[in-house]
Write a structure and sequence with these properties.
alpha/beta, 6-stranded parallel beta sheet, about 240 residues, TIM Barrel, binds fe (ii) ion, 3-stranded parallel beta sheet
Length: about 240
């Protein structure tokens, strides 16, 4: 195990956290949700991921009632991005492996799509990345998570630290039910607020996260995620133990 000096703070980039690793959550497909707006910015983000050493990049556009993306049209646009990305020369001399997944809001549209299947899966075989409102719990969340499992998928809950309606007991219940919890790295630099940061550290210190992602929406946000020196040695050790 690497011994990190106790008093120093590290950045994601300097710690090598993403080196040869996977970013399982991002909004890098331009113009389909509240994420990246232009193809140039999509490519700029992929270049930043290359520089940080990312090996596998999951691109996970929102699918929800307010943003009712269809899986087929996302796939068409993703294929364009992937072809353009692979065709150009990378400044880093490396390429990341890009995959299309999705981040499904657990709303009525999701219930319909789940019945119609197949869904876009993310990260590992048959894993479905899901989210909720940050303010209110969805109707019958437990039932929806069980239905996902009954369809043969594994639910992964995006950024649980952002769900301020959740109590410690909710996190423990989800964890003990085998729901995979995904940390947003920007939570650790306070990008969403102090409360979200504290919740992220609480979950991380208890070993309740399954994996982490950048949830990138903007080039500048990604630069902050990579370069802000906010990770203590303790947090960094916990993060490195999740690395795959
Ligand atoms: Fe997201």
């Amino acid at each position: 195990m690497i011994m990190w000096p106790f008093s120093k703070k590290y950045s994601v980039r300097a710690s090598g956290l993403l080196e040869d690793g996977t970013d399982c959550h991002s909004h890098l497909l331009w113009g389909v949700d509240d994420g990246i707006k232009t193809k140039e910015d999509s490519l700029a983000c992929l270049h930043l991921m290359e520089e940080a050493g990312v090996k596998v990049q999951w691109i996970t556009p929102h699918i929800m009632e307010d943003v009712p993306n269809k899986e087929d049209s996302l796939r068409e646009r993703f294929d364009v991005l992937k072809a353009d990305y692979l065709a150009e020369e990378s400044p880093s001399g490396r390429k990341v492996e890009v995959h299309l997944g999705a981040e499904y809001m657990m709303d009525n549209l999701f219930s319909e799509r789940l019945e119609q299947a197949p869904l876009l899966t993310t990260y590992e075989k048959d894993t479905v990345l899901v989210e909720t409102s940050t303010v209110f719990p969805p109707l019958n969340m437990d039932g929806t998570l069980e239905r996902i499992k009954s369809k043969g998928y594994y639910p992964m809950l995006a950024h649980p630290e952002r769900y301020l309606y959740m109590k410690e007991s909710d996190y423990r219940n989800l964890y003990h039910k085998g729901i995979q919890l995904q940390l947003n790295l920007p939570s650790l630099n306070g990008a969403y607020g102090e409360e979200e940061k504290e919740r992220a550290e609480w979950l991380l210190e208890r070993g309740m996260y399954y994996c982490y992602g950048t949830d990138t929406h903007r080039v500048g946000q990604l630069k902050n995620t990579l370069d802000m020196k906010v990770l203590s040695s303790k947090i960094l050790d916990a993060l490195l133990s999740l690395k795959r």
